[in-house]
Amino acid sequence: MAEEETAVREGVRKPDAAVVRDGLGVGVAVGLSGFAFGVTSAGGGLTPAQTCALSLLVFTGASQFALVGALAAGGNPFTAAAGAFFLGVRNAFYGLRLSQLLALPRVVRPFAAQWVIDETAAVALAQPTRRAVRIGFTVTGVSLYALWNLTTLLGALGAEAIGDTDAWGLDAAGPAVFLALLAPMLKTSVERTVAGLAVLLGLGLLPVLPAGTPVLVAALAAPAVLWARGRRGREDAR
Length: 238
Description:
Blueprint (H helix, E strand, L loop, with lengths): L15 H16 L2 H10 L4 H10 L3 H12 L4 H12 L1 H13 L6 H5 L4 H8 L4 H33 L2 H4 L4 H10 L6 H16 L8 H6 L2 H17 L1
């Protein structure tokens, strides 16, 4: 019990009910956008079984939307998969921090890794104690995984009834949710510069590069900005 109450950061103990409310709020709000993914995926030519398999096994919205979007645009499957992979790499960095905060038994870690995504990380990292971190991570992960997969199935099955997904703008729902989660995290000038450069590279190269490739190039924004910042620092030190 003492371990569970260990403070993760300074602050008063947060009631369990408040943590559950936060986790459910995020899980339900984001989980509903699985419907948009199901419709978009089916509209891009994937079968309901393939669409549901992506949500069950991949379970990271930005990567899923990037993959089906690139395939729908006629992109090479390997390029589309590479773009989705690089978007998903960020979850590994979340995992490094969450593994310390959650301190889960080894037997549980492989199952918990499936839920290491933007939303669970955001809720867990906002908690003041290990107990709250575990509750927030679990509630967000369970609710989001269940609802995301359910709405994915409904979207894939209902795609024919909806018709043209572009006309409804459902293909933009996933990226919009991702940007809404990302924007509050951009607190420093370096983070905002990286994000801005990535957007410019991604959008600017869309007309000239094959589908799925611009996101790979946009990933170069981070090392480019860090290199420029380091070089400027060395020049100022002279």
